[in-house]
Amino acid sequence: MKTQLISLLAALAVLLTACQPAATPTAQTPKRVVYLINGALGDNAFYDSGKLGLDNIAKQYGLETRVIEANFDAAKYEPGLQAAVEFADVVFVISYGFEDQLKAIADANPNKIIVNLDTVVQNSGNTITSVDYIEEEAAYLAGVTAALVTTDTSIKNVNADKVIGAVAGDIDPVISAFTFAYENGAKSIDADIQVEVRSLGGVWDDPAKGKEAALQLYDQKADVVFQIAAASGMGVLQAAKERGLYAIGVDTNQNDIEPGFVAGSMVKNVGDSIERIYATIADGTYKPGQVLEYGLAQNGVDMVFEAQIKVLPQASIDRVLAIRKDIIDGKLKIERYAP
Fold first, then answer.
1. How far apart are CA 88 and CA 32, in angstroms?
2. For residue 263, pLDDT beyond 90
3. pLDDT (tens digit, 9 = 90+) per residue, 135-145?
4. Other Cβ atoms closer than 10 A to 75
5. Cα–Cα distance between 262 and 304 in angstroms, integer?
6. pLDDT one-digit tens code per residue, 240-249
7. Burial of 172 (0-12, 13-18, 19+ CB in 10 A)
8. What is the pLDDT of residue 339?
9. Residue 119 to residue 268: CA distance in whole angstroms
10. Across all residues in the chain, what is the average pLDDT?
């Protein structure tokens, strides 16, 4: 009888726990959030992805949010940081070019939640949390995709030369990780593939320059060009359409910007990261000072093919997706870039 009573009470406890509502934000949950970026919105890529996440948490949690755009102007970096911490309880920041100022602001405002996106920035007070995307995993898949285009002459206008390209906004550790893995992915399909990279020297917001660089690569017999250049990369997609050749998009699904000329897009889910991290702030599980690594398995990066007009045959897409699964399952380890 005693054993039965204990079993009944245990079952009742489980039932009551299951019926309890999910944790909801408390009155102390931060309600003001800033998204501070070194560049500008309107890139249809990296920065806009973050804005989408900001908008989603504003709706879900009833937040007051602001975007501060520095527009690649170094004179705006420190004032932007000051404005962010004066207004917000939580700051999501893309801090290329002002990492030292970010550290100083964080140390001076230890009560603020600061999340740095895409690079690792650690202050002496260890209050900054950084999101480090494993871009190599998805860029490797972009390289595989490019290789499957350039080696398939049944695809319209693909020539017999095994040449692929990339247009980069600059050469820095993050972009180098992209191009390193892109080349490795391509050569995993065919070691004879030639990879050409053009840097725009720090110009991230000039589609005309991106288009010019892509046209140069197409003139060198590249069949496909990976754009890694934010708003400048829109010119790469335009060049692909103009030449009747192919591009690979970046950061968001850009496959339908120039339908039929974008073979796939390597996405970096900045917005999803903002949503995921704010959820931990809201439920009280957030821990400052972490370095969070987001790869394919964490939905931090991906390679997507959804499009109005698909460039690759389904068999080739399936081949890329099989490699993607092997990476997620740990069967294929992708080499990380080491500066």
1. 5
2. yes
3. 999 999 999 99
4. 8
5. 11
6. 999 999 999 9
7. middle
8. 84
9. 13
10. 92
Residue 123 and residue 12: Cα distance in Å, rounded?
48
Q: How confident is the model at residue 29 (pLDDT cuts 50, 70, 90)?
A: confident
Summarised one tens digit per residue, pLDDT across range 107-130 is 999 999 999 999 999 999 999 999
Which amino acid appears at position 163 of this protein?
Answer: V
Domains in the chain, start-ordered, CATH in brackets? 32-133+271-294 (3.40.50.2300), 135-268+309-328 (3.40.50.2300)
3 state DSSP class of 160: coil
- Rounded distance, CA 207 to CA 203, Å? 9
Supply the DSSP string of 275-332, one letter for each residue. HHHHHHHHHT---TT-EEEE-TTTTSEEEE---SS-SS-HHHHHHHHHHHHHHHTTSS
Quick one: DSSP state of residue 270?
Answer: H
pLDDT band at 22 (very low <50, low <70, confident <90, very high): very low
> Model's pTM, two decimal places?
0.88
User: SS3 letters for 65-84?
Assistant: EEEEECCCCHHHHHHHHHHH
Q: How do residues 70-88 score in pLDDT, each as one tens digit?
A: 999 999 999 999 999 999 9
CA distance 182 to 188: 10
Task: Identify the sign of the CA torsion 95, 100, 105, 108.
Answer: positive
Q: Six-digit token pair at 147?
A: 């290789």
Are residues 102 and 116 in contact, defined by beta-carbon separation less than 8 angstroms?
A: yes
Which residue carries 């053009």 as its tokens?
A: 198
Cα four-point dihedral sign 203, 207, 208, 209:
positive
pLDDT given for residue 65 in this prediction: 98
- Is residue 12's pLDDT more than 60? no
Compute the distance between CA of residue 147 and CA of residue 297 in angstroms, rounded to an integer. 23
Maximum CA extent, the chain: 86
Q: Is 171 exposed, middle or buried (0-12, 13-18, 19+ CB in 10 A)?
A: middle
What gap in Å lies between CA 12 and CA 20, rounded to an integer?
Answer: 13
Identify how many contiguous H helices and E strands the chain contains and give both numbers: 10, 12
